[in-house]
């Protein structure tokens, strides 16, 4: 018997598990301290009332013989796929219902999609980046090359003709840097992918935070993207579904590689390995896209946007450089006085009892940077900003 030895090439634990362990050790040693958590991007506001009542109604249906449901379609109920189709249509993007696959979140799908690609492919990943893209490819033993993101290119790497890649990851607005591509910039990536015969895996989990005109919310805003891209999205950050779990993946019919329809391969994979998201959760997700749900969800997003503004103003007042915070719930700041982001993590935890995510956890280019999230409560965010001001004002 042989294990998948590629797992031995991974860091011992997943980035956010490592942080949780460190924070738990600190709180156990210092139970009297009030620790403010702005590390993992986990939402704190409750589900929208329209979502809750849709789920309550669905739960009641499950308790009645006439309306009880067993296995649903693995790729999602038509009512939810229609709602998602409408969401895209409202932004001028037309999708077919069978191009949409409902899932339990973008993280799972971003990892699972690799099932349909050979391990022999070369993967192009920006650095810094959401660690799931790298870890899932390390697990499969794929060759990974990096596209450098840095202050010099606004943390938005552009394609390099001299780099060959088969699978390209793009996350916009970006986790962790908060930088977001315009449709014109994405058009260059689409042109590159088409030329190389590559597939773009586009993570749009933070699209709902885009408020600036001219920035893209979907790769399918770009002409020709349906022939080279798969898009992942999630209700985690848009509608507070981190604990409820629901996302969706769009695999266009027009996407063909090696003579095969990737839509068909993904359908085959999902029907075999996945039994769908629960009916109750899908009814809740459907309600997100209703007029009422959308308005309620926007209210929560406004709170997170205000939090991001509070943190940005704090860093402005301290003269600490940062990006993000505008079209993104993440603020990517320079570690003041530290080149080692993990040492800065320890310092901030110890001195201000504030938790963030060390940039080094997102790749080598993340060293010297630190990520704060805007997902804490308004009170905690304001308090964290005050503590940062006290610690770093000269
Ligand atoms: C993050 O903090 O980067 C995210 O919460 C992780 C995730 O969405 O899986």
Task: Write out key terms for the chains shown.
394 residues, alpha/beta, Aspartate Aminotransferase, domain 1, Aspartate Aminotransferase, domain 2, 2 domains, seven-stranded mixed β-sheet, four-stranded antiparallel β-sheet, 15% strand, binds D-malate
Bound molecules: D-malate
Average residue-wise pLDDT: 97
CATH structural fold name of the largest domain: Aspartate Aminotransferase, domain 2
CATH superfamily heading of the largest domain: Type I PLP-dependent aspartate aminotransferase-like (Major domain)
Principal-axis shape: globular
CATH class value of the largest domain: Alpha Beta
Alpha-carbon distance between the termini?
61 Å
Radius of gyration: 21 Å
What CATH architecture of the largest domain would you give?
Answer: 3-Layer(aba) Sandwich
Low-confidence stretches: none
Helix content: 25-40%
| Series of secondary-structure elements, N-terminal to C-terminal | HEHHEHEHEEHEEHEEEHHHEEHEEEH
Taking strands numbered 1, 2, ... along the chain, how are they ordered across the largest sheet? Answer: 2-8-7-6-5-3-4
Number of helices: 12
Beta strand %: 5-15%
Number of domains: 2
What's the number of extended β-strand segments? 15
The largest β sheet comes out as:
7 strands, mixed
Structural class call reads alpha/beta
Overview of the molecule:
This protein has 394 residues and is α/β, with parallel strands linked by helices. It has 2 domains: 5-47 and 293-392, Alpha-Beta Complex (Aspartate Aminotransferase, domain 1); 49-289, Aspartate Aminotransferase, domain 2, CATH 3.40.640. It has helices at residues 15-29, 49-62, 78-89, 106-112, 131-140, 183-196, 236-239, 262-273, 279-288, 291-318, 341-352, 378-392; strands at 36-37, 100-103, 122-127, 143-148, 167-171, 199-203, 229-234, 247-250, 256-257, 260-261, 322-324, 330-334, 354-355, 357-358, 369-373. Helix 2 packs antiparallel against helix 9, helix 3 packs parallel to helix 9 (279-288) and helix 10 (291-318) runs parallel beside helix 12. The radius of gyration is 21 Å and the shape is globular. The chain starts with 14 loop residues before the first helix and ends with a helix. The structure holds D-malate. D-malate is lined by residues 40-42, 107, 130, 175, 236.
